[in-house]
Amino acid sequence: MVALHAKLPPTPRLLPPAPPSHATPTTAASAAVNARIAELPDVVLDCKRLDALMKSGRLADALDLFDRMPRKNVVAWTSAISGCTRNGRPEDAAAMFAGMLESGVTPNDFACNAALAACAAAGALGLGEQVHSLAVRAGFAGDAWIGTCLIELYARCGSLRAAEEVFRRMESPDVVGYTSLVSALCRDGEFAQAVEVLCQMMRQGLQPNEHTVTSILAACPRGLGEQIHGYMVKAMGLQSVYASSALIDLYSRNGDSDMAKLVFQKLDSKNVVSWCSMMQLCVRDGRLEDALRVFSEMISEGVEPNEFAFSIALGACGSVGLGRQIHCSAIKRGLMTDIRVSNALLSMYGRSGLADELEAVLDKIDNPDLVSWTAAISANFQNGFAEKAVALLSNMHSQGFTPNDYAFSSGLSSCADLALLDQGRQFHCLALKLGCDSKICTGNALVNMYSKCGQIESARLAFDVMNLHDVTSWNSLIHGFAQHGDANMALEVFSEMCSSGFKPDDSTFLGVLVGCNHAGLVKEGEIFFRLMIDQYGIMPTPSHYACMIDMLGRNGRFDEALGMIEKMPFEPDALIWKTLLASCKLYRNLDMGKLAADKLMELSERDSASYVLMSNIYAMHGEWQDAGKLRQRMDEVGVKKEAGESWIEVKNEVHAFVARDTSHPDSASIYQMLAELVDVMQDTDLDVHVQVL
């Protein structure tokens, strides 16, 4: 926060000082006037140039000109302060106001307005209070515009009561003053009081303008919105673009697309705000193609799309080709420096699975914000780049950003997929420190992470400390116990879930069936399978059927498993036949195995697992010729069994490897250590054997 250490300079003398004794009064006065006239054109010209540069967004050039100005009057200082705020540098604007006072320039009402606007934008309440005090001492407190700026300052900084007090002390608040208070009350959720102020304004004989109406419409319910709509028809003729855009948004929020379209169509002049409102309406209704059509129509009508229009269009874009076209259009219009457009691009490329393009966009953002980091982390996780997601979350925190619930969720889920227990614990500690561990998204991810990393007790603890649970929370815990083979705990959690008033979904029953399968509880599995259909009306998915078929197959009940496959309401996929084939290998069922293998190869001829499983079944029965033919067919089709990959985390770095891998830079020393371990194991085995003998 910038402090105003400079004192208010004394009131300047309006008359020139007394002339020296050797000069006549006329001569001295004429010299002073001539000097002022000589410097006036330069100061005025510099001020005009400064203002033009600020308004055109050339902040660096404007500040360079300001620094080179030999004399800076109050107009120059005010232009610089306003320009810095307008160009997103309110902290610098506030510091510049303090510099103006220290330089001895007396602020006028415009300078105080500019300083208050800077403080409001920067959220600098303490500094704004000092400017307020200065304005009172300078005699500007009764100025209506100063009062309006003060209302905005206190409202933006969360001191609504102070804003109301400023309003009460205003001698004759005008429409702008009333509008500022109405907007502040609406933003703070005090809508009833905002309506009361609006009524007070109209009793004073002041008619609401388009900004007043817009503020109310942004927060009001449908009934009052329709009354304001009627007032607008009578008083404004529905040709206020901003107020009409707020009307479109009102009807859109309340699901009345037809009225929103009617308001839009009756507008004689449509600006980018009204077009954006229609695009947002289409997005709310799930009509993404219509949103893109509106975007195209806007451009055809000659309306230049802004950063909001591009961000909405990119959010609605489901085609990579069209998304790239919109990206190019944003580059041509110079909008890539806007963080909203960049964030929308990150989300678009993330949805499309284009990780390289996403990374390129992220690298070009000068100052990524919380949304940028979160979008990149989530996109990498969802597209299978878990290592990158973990690295981004760590980098985000090192850059000074505080991860939110969604960033933690994606990061922890990535740790779960990679079984990075130590890294997941570090993220857990950070979430605990920030108070995010008890939130639903982070809590669910913690349960999932600890379950997949083999720490089921920690998963239960993470579940218990959550303030609120949703269906996903219960499902994560049920799946965790099921994967650990603890069917009894999985069923107990299912009972707790139902007792807590939550309705199980298809994922819940899948977890229960997996638990029953792992524990060999076939009868219980059949009961829950029927319960899912009969009581909860949930149609089983291929995953549910695969679990039941695996359960029956592992119990040797192949006829029932095949009967279930034949009665399925959809065609069995590769997962179903592969599950049955695996059970056939377990029981050496050659005939059923041949059937499953043939069906599987029809569906997926290049799936190596089916060839390997069937080959093993042939080998178990001594059918070496058939096993050889199957291997030969694999070679003809070009199917190769992918090597199983393992990985290990050392000092927060993941090292992946396969059998007989030599790609690691330290492979020589790794194999040397492996040989030494083999020797030790052999020696130990010999000692044990001797002791047993």
From TrEMBL:
Presence of the UniProt keyword Protein biosynthesis in the record: no
Name of this chain's protein: Pentatricopeptide repeat-containing protein
Region (Disordered): 1-26
InterPro entries attached to this UniProt entry: E2_motif (IPR046849), E_motif (IPR046848), PPR_At4g14850-like_plant (IPR046960), PPR_rpt (IPR002885), TPR-like_helical_dom_sf (IPR011990)
Alphabetic keyword roster: Repeat, Transit peptide
Gene3D superfamilies named among the record's database cross-references: Tetratricopeptide repeat domain
Each PPR repeat, start to end: 73-107, 174-208, 271-305, 369-403, 470-504, 541-571, 607-641
Lineage: superkingdom: Eukaryota
Biological process, per Gene Ontology: RNA modification
Feature: compositional bias, Pro residues: 9-22
The keyword DNA repair is annotated on this UniProt entry: no
